[in-house]
User: Fold this.
Amino acid sequence: MLEEKIFHAIQQLPKPLQREVLDFIEYLQAKAAQEEQRAWAQWSLDMAMQGLEDEEEAEVVYSWDDLKVRFK
Assistant:
């Protein structure tokens, strides 16, 4: 199995190189988590915008009275 091959290969390395392998694994895990987060964000945006492309284009103008919260 792949896992066993990786395990045995890592065991043959000196400790400093084992640490490098672990650092690389952690980098790959962080990268995968970031890509998953990006995919969820895109999906969420797609779902929020769903159906808006069918609406007629109309200029929407808001005034200060429409704001519920103002940041200074």
Summary: Residues 20-46 form one domain.
